[in-house]
């Protein structure tokens, strides 16, 4: 109930009920209803993001709702000739979604307004008056929203920070489970991919909230500290993704020393628990108490590594370097979490840097609004074009069914269609099931309440409460939201209609028809199966990984300060992997006959994840350690990996594929590293203690070689696996 979803639902509930209540009181119900509808229509644009973007979205929604209400009011006529007119209008409104996510929400406001034009509210009010008051309702909702934002400026930011902390905690915990010998690593990797996609969404929202403010007008001390916390969370994710060891190899090397590995797992679980604790304190506004449990657990790990060294008579082997590298990463992770705690506990910002205004713009994903985009997407190569055309045809069919069978409140069919239909089949199918189940459950509950009481006061209270809960749950649990939407609609009609059981019956029938049409439309009309677009998504992810690899390799060679381009490329690589994971998830929701090469595509997704994980490990190490000058052998490996990725991209983009790298160059590089490691084996037992510089150099060589070799193997596997898929 402290979430922004619930506060938004309260605002919307107030924006709807107050005008209707005042309208009834002053015997101007139609005016009050029109204002309430205006608030409802504009609320879809009120999604998380910068306040400026939200305000602009609400205003555009209000303008579109007014224009569409005018068109709907004057163009709706009782003739079959209206069907193609309706189709054209629905296509034109839906097609606005080519301008991005927020534009799609504004588009939905227009679609919603068109459907509500069939609701027969013109008996005592002129069309232009209704449209005008719908516009007033939009401004009324905007005003309430701005007042709430002024009273609670921190609620949205804190909610998303807390949610990101929770997801990062779950990601850490899942990573910790991977360490366990014999763990179901395949299932855990699938969970990591899902969490990665969710975290990318949260990170993008926080970037817009925090960096948009900094880009436009600077920021307050509170916003600067939240931005610094967000930066630490991005680094925590990179460290969590970093994989300095091969788990299977570690199982073999540490077979007789499992207790040392379990110490790492305990530390990771404690870090995950600490992030959860921080999130809980932010949600409830409590002061964060300082704790030392992470440093205690870190010290236990250090003692375990020291004990392992004593067991080897202080002669390091591959296992000791592996443990030390893993320890270094967890030590950095504890530092990052400690910095988050310091930012929340103290008033000082510490020594953490802040992103400059001009740099902040580079982290935001810009959205173009050039009219040429409408022309470029006008064809069956565009998923939005196909979706808009599909939606228009299905709406025309729904309207024709309602008109032919003279169904009561037939516009509910159209409403169900526009709410359920999405550009891809998977989400449409899921929404259809949830909407149907929610409507049936809500109808059953409503019947029970109607049979128990006919008290209009109870109906009125339940309609408002149900409405608020429905809006609060729409993003979290769509089926639950559908239950309460049905309850709210039924109780509102119960105040107006004497036979409420008929209303429930028609509500169920119309929902089933609309859900069925939406699902069939996505199957039969130019279906956008994920397999058709997965090739481009894979190419985007590989391309982003390649750019990130170039930045990491360049940083290792040049040293110095981490550049903004490095951080931007890291962000793009994370987003690319998240988009690929999300596309694969949608693919698994489609009919089995359309899941072409599903297992091979999953292997490609895992290879991309492994590449980014290994790359993050390499990048994190060289950022946090003083490294030696990059040898020519490292540069050879980097060139070979880049060429392999270039060959994979050439295959995906159907371009001329370059010749494979010269194998003799790789053998030369391998020989160099093999000689480096032979030094470890040749150390005499009498020389038990190596110099610190020597150990550091060997540790660096072990990690750099392992990561470069692993990256090179992945790039080869990726190229081969892609060629096995018949795109």
Strand-helix topology:
Elements: H1 4-25, H2 29-43, H3 51-75, H4 82-94, H5 101-116, H6 127-151, H7 155-178, H8 185-217, H9 221-241, H10 247-253, H11 258-284, H12 293-311, H13 318-345, H14 357-363, H15 372-376, H16 383-404, H17 411-420, H18 425-452, H19 456-473, H20 478-496, H21 500-524, H22 530-558, H23 564-588, H24 598-624, H25 632-652, H26 663-681, H27 692-724
Helix pairs in contact: 1-2, 1-6, 1-19, 2-3, 2-5, 2-6, 3-5, 3-6, 4-5, 4-16, 5-17, 7-8, 7-9, 7-11, 8-9, 8-14, 8-23, 9-13, 11-12, 11-13, 12-13, 13-27, 16-17, 16-21, 17-21, 18-20, 18-21, 19-20, 20-21, 22-23, 22-24, 22-25, 23-24, 24-27, 25-26, 25-27, 26-27
**Radius of gyration over alpha carbons?**
29 Å
Order of helices and strands: HHHHHHHHHHHHHHHHHHHHHHHHHHH
- End-to-end gap: 47 Å
Total beta strand runs: 0
